[in-house]
Amino acid sequence: MEKMSGNSGYKEYVAGLMAGIAIVITGHPFDTVKVKLQKHNTEARGIKYKNGLHCAARILKTEGVKGLYRGATSSFIGMAFESSLVFGIYSQTKILLQGGPDGGKPQPQAIVPSAAFGGAIISFILCPSELVKCRMQVQGADSVLPSSSRYGGPLECALKTVKCEGITGIFRGGFTTLLRESFGNAVFFSTYEYVRYHLHLQRKGASSESSQLIDIGVGIMSGGLGGIACWSAVLPLDVAKTIIQTTPEKNHTRNPFRVLKSIYARSGLRGCYMGLGPTIVRAFPANAAAIVTWELSAKLLGIKRDFN
């Protein structure tokens, strides 16, 4: 397994920031489709999309490529800080719990709490940025929102939210975000670590010339599969979060389990997993890009990772 130099500290956070940028560039269009499906296809009335492809085609027809990147500004800011913190906190906490750098098989007793802790911390940053992102995403050309409720940009959205709902309004869905990020990151990093460990066992004996190419391949597989495992586990919580953050009613319940119970009664299990298609399609490339970018950035920054 990898060994990291003791002075890697802040560099892990810089590498994580680069990973976040890679996630947004790769995955935001899929995320826009997912949010629209979750918002509109779980409502009792309003527009319905047949599937993710139909939703994407409609966005492109009515708004162009720009529509797929609606809300990307807040997403770039939120994801950059989120990834910087989650990768940095995860790496440093795992070393602390293990009593030193990795030296062999992944240790779940260090991986799971480190990932969950990182997820809990970043949820406080991610919640407001995702609230703005989601509200921007659902107000496209197909939205039934009145013009008075539309936002000209992310900053206007944030300011209007605070003005109308108070400072707590910008943190609407915070508990659900915390649950999603804690559990989701535990699943993601556990899958990532185990897949990477076993793939690197298979690569022993490979020539040095092909080593870097193999590292990229391992990063793609471990990151991609980690992303699929994560989102398969937490998508219902994400559906609940989207509903909580985008509903116009101020007194709407913020309990994710009540929201999911209501969705289940109306749309069944399919409703609780609304947006699964674009989420899974997005999960592999976006998280593969994140891991490859993280590991390459770490290497460029001089963080030593040598495998036994």
UniProtKB/TrEMBL annotation:
It is found in: Mitochondrion inner membrane. This is Mitochondrial arginine transporter BAC1. It comes from Solanum lycopersicum. The lineage of its organism: Eukaryota, Viridiplantae, Streptophyta, Embryophyta, Tracheophyta. One of its GO terms (cellular component) is mitochondrial inner membrane. SUPFAM superfamilies: Mitochondrial carrier. Signal peptide: none annotated. GO terms for biological process: mitochondrial L-ornithine transmembrane transport. One of its GO terms (molecular function) is L-ornithine transmembrane transporter activity. The keyword Mitochondrion applies.
